[in-house]
Design a protein that fits this description.
Strand content: 25-35%
Structural class: alpha/beta
Number of strands: 5
Distance between the termini: 27 Å
Oligomer: single chain
Mean pLDDT: 95
Largest sheet: 5 strands, mixed
Length: 130
C-alpha cells in the first residue's frame, strides 16, 4: 500500500489522481488535517526562518508516513525546499506535478484580445536532491 501525502493548497484533479495511481503506484491519498493545511497554506512572508512554523506538519508526517510513501509537495518555495529535503531524508518519495499551458486568444467585440490559459497535467516529477 503506497500512500500519497498532499502538501499543497489545491484540489487534486481526477487526472492527477489517476496518474498518481498508475505511475507512482499510489493506493490512497492523505490530505493534511485542517490545522496543518492552514500552516502549509499560510507560510508567513515576513518570517526570517520558517522551519519552526512547519515543525507541527513534520511531526505529523513523522507519525503518519512510512518509507516508500509519496509526498506531493507544492507551495511556498522555501517550505517546498524544506519539505522535499525532509521527505527525502526519511525515505519518502517527494514529487511535484508538471503542467502544460494551453493559451487561447479571444477577439473581443471592441477589438481587444483576451488571453486565456488552461493548465493541463502532464506528469509527476521527483524532486532531485543531490
Amino acid at each position: 500500500m503506497i500512500r500519497c501525502f498532499l502538501l499543497f493548497s489545491h484540489t487534486l484533479t481526477d487526472e492527477q489522481a489517476a496518474d498518481a495511481c498508475q505511475s507512482l503506484g499510489v493506493t490512497e491519498f492523505i490530505a493534511l488535517p485542517p490545522e496543518l493545511q492552514a500552516i502549509w497554506s499560510d507560510v508567513p512572508p515576513d518570517a526570517e526562518r520558517i522551519a519552526e512554523h512547519l515543525q507541527p506538519l513534520f511531526d505529523w508526517l513523522e507519525q503518519q508516513a512510512q518509507a516508500g510513501d509519496v509526498a506531493l509537495i507544492q507551495g511556498d518555495f522555501g517550505a517546498v525546499w524544506l519539505a522535499a529535503h525532509w521527505a527525502q531524508r526519511r525515505g519518502l518519495r517527494p514529487v511535484y506535478a508538471t503542467t502544460r499551458r494551453e493559451a487561447v486568444e479571444i477577439r473581443l467585440p471592441d477589438g481587444g484580445i483576451q488571453k486565456q490559459s488552461r493548465f493541463r497535467h502532464v506528469r509527476f516529477r521527483r524532486y532531485e536532491i543531490l
